[in-house]
Design brief:
Chain lengths: 128, 178
């Protein structure tokens, strides 16, 4: 009752969805410039632009329980060193896409990646 | 075939569709695409198409969407479900009319599901002015495949088991059952 045509269609659709998925991976999510915003205590501390031609630097931030070091490597950013007790921020690893954030709660430091077209003030969720 | 019995049967289909629509609305889909649903109510559209044709399929689908949206309390998702349902009904009716040798009801249901998802994501992207929603299309398509399998099989069994009874009841014409 399930014909051969059905099975071919099934695999074609799976193939098509994989192609679309792959296309998104290659093409990328951000269609603008991306920036790193480092906020300490809720206030903007530093803003650095990312990109494949971006900077390669380390930023030292004096904080409540010691010092945090943020490392930027061209188009990704991570918390390299922190003296907070949990070390959650370090375990986050690298982030590079707009919307991703790393938080060091004890030291009140937030690293976020933002892109040109959608600022952080935009709507996060829409319900119906 | 008696016309008023056909009308009664179509109304029954619409009410089944409404129930499916309401239940569907309660099942959360893990994608933030507005109006993304499992696609269970397509069973009704498929039954209407396979028993009658495009016109009846459209009538049933549109009524199901409108009344279902009113009853489920979610009128804002009407535009997504209506556009998806209309497009998928048209595609399914076309496939049923011309390709019923190539695809069984399961294959036609696959086509309907994929069309529905694609239309939904497109309409949602236009309304929300963002094309990032298309990233969810692959996942929606895969989910649509599996519910399409279920939907198609259900419609097939309905046809197998109810077909002769409906002809005897005067709801269906003789030659509709292959």
């Amino acid at each position: 009752m399930i014909t051969k045509g059905d099975k071919i269609l099934f695999f074609c659709i799976i193939l098509l969805s994989l192609i679309i998925f792959a296309a998104f991976q290659v093409y990328g999510f951000a269609d603008g410039k991306t920036y790193v915003l480092i906020e300490v205590n809720g206030k903007l501390y530093q803003k650095v632009s990312l990109g494949s031609d971006g900077p390669n630097l380390k930023i030292h931030i004096p904080a409540a329980t010691g010092e945090n070091v943020v490392e930027i490597d061209r188009d990704s950013v991570r918390m390299l060193y922190a003296q907070c007790p949990d070390q959650d921020c370090i375990r986050q690893g690298w982030i590079s896409r707009p919307g991703q954030i790393i938080v060091c709660l004890p030291n009140k430091i937030v690293i976020k990646v933002q892109s040109d077209n959608n600022s952080a003030d935009e709507v996060d969720e829409v319900t119906f | 075939m008696h016309e008023h019995r056909k009308t009664i049967f179509l109304s029954l289909l619409v009410s089944f569709g409404i129930v499916l629509h309401i239940i569907e609305n309660m099942i959360p889909v893990p994608f933030p695409v507005p109006g993304a649903k499992l696609g269970l109510a397509n069973i009704i559209s498929l039954i209407a198409i396979s028993f009658y044709g495009l016109k009846e399929g459209l009538i049933v689908s549109i009524l199901r969407c409108i009344i279902g949206a009113l009853l489920a309390g979610s009128l804002t998702s009407l535009i997504y479900s209506l556009s998806g349902a209309i497009m998928s009904t048209i595609v399914m009716a076309f496939a049923y009319k011309h390709f019923s040798k190539v695809f069984s009801l399961v294959g036609i249901s696959f086509l309907g599901g994929v069309t529905h998802n694609f239309t939904q994501v497109t309409v949602a992207s236009l309304v929300l002015s963002t094309f990032g929603l298309y990233i969810y299309l692959p996942f929606l398509m895969i989910v649509g495949l599996f519910t399409g399998l279920f939907t198609g099989l259900t419609a097939y069994f309905v046809k197998q088991n109810l077909g002769t009874t409906l002809i005897k009841l005067g709801v269906l014409r003789e030659e509709k059952i292959q």
